[in-house]
Amino acid sequence: MNEILSLDKAQMRYGDGTRALDGLSLDFPSASFTALVGPSGCGKSTALRLLAGLLAPTGGNVTMPTRDQIGFVFQDPTLLAWKSAYDNIALPLKIAGHTRADINQRVGYALDLVGLSGRGAALPRELSGGMKMRVSLARALASEPRILLLDEPFAALDELTRLRLDDDLLHIWQQSKCTVVFVTHSISESAYLAERVAVLTNAGQLAHIENISPPATREGFRSASAYHRAMGNIAAALGHDLNHDFGENLSAGRGSAS
Amino acid sequence: MMRYFLPAFIGILTLGIWEIWVTLANIPPFVLPAPTSIFDALLENANTLFSALAVTLYITTLAFFWAVISGIALAVIFTRARIIEMAFYPYVVTLQVTPVVAIAPLILIWVGFGNVDRALILIAWIVAFFPMLTNTVQGLRATEASLHELMTLSRASWRQRLIYLELPAALPSILTGAKVSGGLALIGAVVAEFVAGSGTGTGLAWRIIEAGNRLEIATMFAALVLLSLLGIFIFYALSIVEWLALRRWHESFQPKST
Asked: Does ipTM exceed 0.90?
């Protein structure tokens, strides 16, 4: 296993003494899809920023490739309002010094990948929330990164848009075979998307690892028992008994794609 | 329609009442001239008044130009090097809060010797510079943190960060500063001409003093009208620049959805 991405007893303490991560160790095998789940303030975003090199750990080690091999998707679309979708996607490539022809080809590819071909000229304000997020995703993918880090990317979107983007993300991952680390606070989203869900505690420690073996196409997976078992285990690790909290929804939702 | 019709109606009504009242009450023209005699004075002294207008416009424009250049440049320096800001900011404030009329005679002696225009421009610049600086600093500082992280991830140099992100993001604030600064440059130019007094005696402000001394109150009003028109012209010219620069992407120019 060639590990290009890992956290080794990573610690993060901020200047005011708050401890965001306390000795978190996680390996991210090449081409794997890992979700980080935890309560707000548990340090899952901090862990992602360590992996991106946006923060340096105050203790422990972070192994990561060079920055140009990392794609990062923020919680908000984080687009430049005065630039078109095309120019937003092109900007990191332009900064990295790619040729115009190369940029053109890569942006076209990325727009295609997120299903926005033909919308390159649109300004962010002319796009819906879901489309803006797609542009943001395309920007991260345009450099063809080996690693894709996503920080609660679809949290602000409506449920239907989110489900669609989840499926699109899976498709993109399967096509590009990059390593994905996906931060979310949604138990169902993590269990649906990831091969492996790492549950963090409030104190920034690893509480549980849930290994899921989802089918390549997630057709019908939302009603599969493996999916519900995973959700139950993740919820239990978070200190919630899912059967207790959501028991009714669970049995009612079985059989339909909830 | 009402937006234009209503103020026009109020203006015409006021002028009409003014004209009738001055005639009926037999108010001497050296106290309050009738609008028609102000207009006559404007035509009669068109040559001197319009060349005076050109001089005031010249002083105002140059002061405004330097205020924009130096305000943006200093704001960039301040936001790049906190230590320079700490060292110099109190003096910038001192320059701003000291009444310019009080420093103007000194500036005239030091700078104006042999070149009064240069002193006039400097005085007007002192008045116009400050809002340009503070608005640009505020705009540069208000750039979203995640956009900065995006630049860090793209390994942008400080110059790329400035050109691609900070200056465009600060543009709305910069243009707001410019609208204030443009008006202040005119005020500064008038104050400077007042203080400089005779000897130079070519701008509109000097024509006002001169006409006052000769009790040519109608000419005084005519010069005043030209000054107001100049101020209005500056404000709307800058508003048009703002509209051209921001209308496509900035939220303040988008139709409100309720």
From this structure: no
